[in-house]
Amino acid sequence: MSVRPSKNDVESDFLVIGSGVAGLSCALEVADAGSVTIITKKQDSESSTNYAQGGIATVLGEGDSFASHRDDTLRVGCGLCHEDVVERVVQEGPEVIGKLRNWGARFTMRDDTEGKGILALGKEGGHSHDRIVHAKDLTGREIEGALLMKDFESLPVNHGCHGAACM
Ligand SMILES: Cc1cc2nc3c(=O)[nH]c(=O)nc-3n(C[C@H](O)[C@H](O)[C@H](O)COP(=O)(O)OP(=O)(O)OC[C@H]3O[C@@H](n4cnc5c(N)ncnc54)[C@H](O)[C@@H]3O)c2cc1C
At residue 110, does pLDDT exceed 80? Predict the structure, then answer.
């Protein structure tokens, strides 16, 4: 694989290609272990992540269960889903939402019956329970902005490398 940064060559312990939610969260995960360089094609925020609207399905609601989320996903997947992957993604969902919140993503909240703020979970097609964590209808932009901010703020992450990585 060759990488062509637009300006000078840079040295770092980790090279992350892409600045969507996958790349930025990877950069944050490994930043404790060394320096990180992110190379991305266009502006830092230019990614599918930034355009994602609806939200993220995960099991956080009262009466919901991992088994229900898995079954809903497999049913609407019509045989195309890898069951082991569905199982893992469903199980890891709540922890990932926790991480995104810790990294600064602010999702839409509502008051519970005692007036305590909790995540406002939406219900979308194919789901039998309320389980869509969202930030109004700009969920991806909220996540992208939070992760970019976190990266820039406190980590040894080298941004500003704009260019396409070529296989
Ligand atoms: C309009 C829209 C709405 C969506 N709504 C939802 C939703 O409601 N819920 C949901 O879960 N998902 C939704 N998605 C899907 C979701 O956005 C993606 O699954 C997710 O953002 C993928 O994240 P990613 O980090 O893997 O990729 P991306 O966010 O696309 O990031 C890829 C990064 O890699 C960079 N890159 C690519 N090729 C190279 C290269 N050769 N060299 C250097 N950099 C490169 C890109 O510039 C970009 O920064 C939506 C997507 C779109 C487009």
Answer: yes
